[in-house]
TrEMBL record:
Residues 5-86 form the GST N-terminal domain. GO terms for molecular function: glutathione binding; glutathione transferase activity. This is glutathione transferase. It is an enzyme of class 2 (transferase). The keyword Transferase applies. InterPro entries: Glutathione-S-Trfase_C-like, Glutathione-S-Trfase_C_sf, Glutathione_S-Trfase, Glutathione_S-Trfase_N, GST_C, Thioredoxin-like_sf. Keywords: Transferase. It comes from Paraburkholderia caledonica. Residues 91-213 form the GST C-terminal domain. Gene3D superfamilies: 1.20.1050.10, Glutaredoxin. Its EC number is 2.5.1.18. GO terms for cellular component: cytoplasm.
Length: 213
């Protein structure tokens, strides 16, 4: 399959996981089209999208006639199918640490930082709803553990793992872009200097501005 075949990403610009895939495409300098899909439409997930992703989630991906869903599969394919910077460390231990960070972000941080804190505090206000204070309060201890571990695992370099962009950065950045908008973020991030410095550097990357929802 030629790297010049058309690349399409299906999903919503606001989605953290769609943005992960977009960041991978941007960092690899792959031209692509984002096709907006509303999986929360009142009429339900669009039927044509269920053909791309039978579980009705986003993103879904096409490269020519090759189709994929699941963010982890998509970003690994992007990294290996296209030329440019490598988004996975070649060093065995660095790659293992990167994969551990991805596991933490997927299993613990995403739900806690994005849904339980950002959505409840920021999105609910934007939509004129009352925040679920119990949900936020319950999320704070878990958020502290997530942030503490990310700070501990992070190399004290320009990026989360090593001296170049990896999947660890691409996964964490869209989640932090949401979480850092919540007023709770300032106190929760106190003392996590490596993480604060990483976010200050990564937030201003060209790939971040080009994928801003």
């Amino acid at each position: 399959m030629s790297a010049t075949e058309v690349v399409k990403l299906y999903g919503a610009a606001w989605s953290a996981y769609v943005r992960i895939a977009r960041l991978a495409l941007e960092e690899k300098q792959v031209s692509y089209g984002l096709v907006e899909v509303d999986v929360f439409a009142k009429t339900g997930v669009p039927q044509e999208h269920l053909k791309r992703h039978p579980f009705g989630r986003i993103p879904a991906f096409e490269h020519g006639d090759f189709r994929l869903y699941e963010t982890g599969a998509i970003v690994r394919y992007i990294d290996e199918a296209f030329p440019g910077c490598k988004l996975q460390p070649t060093d065995l231990k660095a790659r293992a640490k990167m994969n551990q960070i991805l596991g933490i972000l997927d299993a613990y941080a995403y739900r806690t930082l994005v849904w339980d804190i950002y959505v409840e505090r920021v999105v609910s206000t934007r939509e004129g709803r009352l925040a679920n204070e119990q949900k936020i309060a319950a999320a704070l201890p878990r958020a502290t553990v997530c942030l503490s571990e990310l700070n501990r695992l992070t190399d004290d370099q320009a990026f989360l793992i090593g001296g170049g962009v990896t999947f660890a950065d691409l996964y964490a950045a869209p989640m932090f872009a949401c979480f850092m908008q919540a007023p709770e973020a300032a106190s929760l991030m106190e003392g996590f200097e490596k993480l604060i410095h990483w976010w200050q550097r990564f937030a201003v990357r060209d790939s971040m501005s080009r994928t801003s929802p």
